[in-house]
# Entry
Amino acid sequence: MSSSTVKICFNSECTDRKSERLRKGWRTRSGDCVELCDRCGSLYDEGRFCETFHLNASGWRGCKSCGKRVHCGCIASIHSFTLLDTGGIECIPCARKNVVLTPNPAWPPHFFLPLPERLKDPVKNWSQSQPVGPWRASNLFNNSIPQSDLRPRMPSEADLSTGVDRLIVSERSSASSMEKKKIEDSSERSMNGGLKLGALEMLENGNSGTNCEEQPASCVNIPQQSSSLNDDHSAPLLSLAVPYASSSETNGQTVVSGTLSQPTPSPPLAKKFSGHPHNGVDSSGEAQVRNGRPRGDARGRNQLLPRYWPRITDQELQQISGDSNSVITPLFEKMLSASDAGRIGRLVLPKKCAEAYFPAISQPEGLPLKVQDAKGHEWIFQFRFWPNNNSRMYVLEGVTPCIQSMQLQAGDTVTFSRLEPEGKLVMGFRKASTAPSSDQGNETIKTGNGGSTHGDVSIRKTKTGEVALTNRHLKSNLGSPSFSSMDQADLADPASAWSKVDKSGYIAKEALGAKSSIPRKRKNSTLGSKSKRLRIENEDLIELKLTWEEAQGLLRPPPNHVPNVVVIEGYEFEEYEEPPIIGKPTIFATDDMGEKIQWAQCEDCFKWRKLPADVCLSSRWTCSENSWDPERSSCSATQEITAEQLEDLLPTSKTGMTCLKQILGFSFSQ
DNA sequence: ATACTGCATGATCGG
DNA sequence: CGATCATGCAGTATT
# Structure
């Protein structure tokens, strides 16, 4: 096999520093290179998102600006795939240069894409790609950016073979500008004694004496807010998600801008738009995830942490909406902590979520909030807050019956959505065992263990167990000392990887330094001291920086695998169902007969031996194990290939192999 | 004695 | 380093 094939995986030309990290992404070309997933940071079998993503959105494209080949599935990820429908993509560095948008802090930098010409024609450009529901929301940009210039790209349905989004585009979303304003004002309202009431507040609190369900119009926001919106130049652009949207908030004047012109790409959205063959439910039986995004606060402070981004599955949506034509606006989700799920009946709400999506409250007593569960039952919780330091701590009280009704436990996730046009607040849930891939979900998948966890201790135990399991898995496969100190838990932590995608823009995450969002005990951590952990992680990081290229060379398709062959732009990719294993570094090549082979070096004599391409060797492989060539199953046998020839085989990968040589003590002599 | 309530504490995380 | 939030805990209410 030629050296070029060794290096074809991924965007090796990418100059972005992050590309120097360990590449993740479970993809191979001609079986010579396997990577971990860039998007979720997990092994393939854990990165279901990636599975879908890759099948539909990946491939190689030429950067529109510099011509470099960029992989639009993983590394360039959102950046690239969101540009697919423009007929071209840009590599990260170019895209970065071209970014003219002022990012909303609620969004990771890579969501702010260069402005393509086509965006100046929203009708043309988005006519095929407007599955933008109100849930895809946000005030992505600050006020200073002209609306026409503020259009983050989404992958078109055509490009991504998307399915139809049940979260239909709704003109109602245009009203979100008003809602945005409400959000902006909410905290102040709270602080200032609640001069105004959000729609929900009016709805649930009865302060307005109206019920949105009956009189939607009455739930429209307060006059001065509405009027002020016209002056809020940020409003028309963004406002996709409607905090308290109701049908009454339809405003013909703002219809187009928000919904059609402001699709807001998000990593999770890739799933949403992916036209996976198993649309709705992937091959694993897992429901397709719809990931809403936080409505960004215009002041940039209401951004939600990724772990609160709603990741609602089709099943959940179906469950919530039933047969109605209601539009569901996922608001946020939260994994239940032990105390949330405990008998105390208090569900701590993330502050930003509470302030963004729940009615503003000025008094600690708060107000009763009517919430409908997925079964249609209505619950009334007390939405209130406690003064906490100089801040607030928002809680929903009285959730125990509901929690019990849904048989939720710590580690499970509750989701809050809004049902439009009713304006109902809907509380869904996701058992840990069925959680989708997400920064929470992937962990919960693993913690779920087919059932659910049992409180915080169990979670912690499970978490630990998961790590241990992962460690076992990796230890059994890791053949390189370069990986021996890797934070394996991180590798198995697509969750945090995901969040890193969000932040960094490209690579999922540092393989190290992952932070779990799973609830866990703060004290008596089984992970040891933080300082120690950090120290280890830093050491690992250095090591990984050195070895990401060779790390790819170490990754091998699992034995007996049957890859799905995907041809993308003329390049043949093999995708594997099983996670890669890491074996002895070898050099893949093609022999004179055109057969794929690999060259492996004996650990004892350092001679290189020709082996079948599909074998995986132990890290201490020696000539004596060369059962494929009995004549060279001894160190005394001569080497078939010269050092020069070997060097020629080292690609682009010379550097990597040099590193390997240095790190692993390999020798190319002979 | 138990349950509830409200606040305080401190671990964790993000900027 | 400040903000967030999970949880501890003291005080109070209820059984």
Observations:
- Residues 37 and 379 of chain A are 41 Å apart (CA to CA).
- The two ends of chain A are 21 Å apart (CA to CA).
